[in-house]
Design goal:
Blueprint (H helix, E strand, L loop, with lengths): L10 E3 L2 E2 L12 H11 L12 E2 L15 E4 L12 H12 L5 E6 L2 H10 L6 E6 L7 H7 L5 E6 L16 E5 L11 H14 L2 E6 L12 H4 L2 E2 L2 E3 L8 E3 L1
Parallel strand pairs: 1-4, 4-5, 5-6, 6-7, 7-8, 8-9
Antiparallel strand pairs: 2-3, 10-11, 11-12
Length: 248
Amino acid sequence: MKTTKIEWTDKTWNPITGCTKHSTGCQHCYAEIMSRRLKAMGLDKYTNGFHLTLHEDALDEPRSWRKPHNIFVCSMSDLFHQDVPEWFIDKVLKTISETPQHRYQILTKRAERMANYFTVHNVPTNVWLGVTVEAPELKYRIDLLRNLSATVKFLSCEPLVEDLGELNLDGINWVIVGGESGNQARPMSIEWVENIRIQVEKSGAAFFFKQWGTWGSDGIKRNKHANGKLLNGIVMQEMPQMHNIVQL
């Protein structure tokens, strides 16, 4: 059963909450806003707000989920944040290795630390590894990802805040693109999206267009739900090794 509004996954698992800003995509962080909201609601897990917090009591959560799921790891943090001790990352990966019925999607902006970690640790076969590439100066993260031995390697170009230009997608299986949400959201141009889509299709990878966000394809600011997720009148939400393009 899908228990998250994130379109490209089924469940989220947060053995870590809280983070710090690392690159331009963090400027209006959804997780920070959500953490503050959850703290105000009195949820024990968010007592510390958006300060990085380890939750050892959450490490075994996926063991109780018997039905296979796509699980986004640390949707409210970053597993490879510099303040997460390596022993805790080891524990997260132990749970992952011991629950092979699930597919775990690990997405980071700390591509250097992830690459270093998996230089001396094996990537479990049920792990998909991804990096966020929201602006052209961050394309080096793709190079750090490409040589890792993950079953699926993916890019999240969300929030896409600039044209990424030419991309080297060798070894990349999946690319997610989306615009920014919120009152302070930065607009995303359809030309930037199309540039990525064309290159992804040529590479043979799967292309997933998540949403326009607060700014529509027509450049008008409105509710993100009103702007929707159509790209040239089509829902393009492919998953790795799957094709799910729906003509509307």
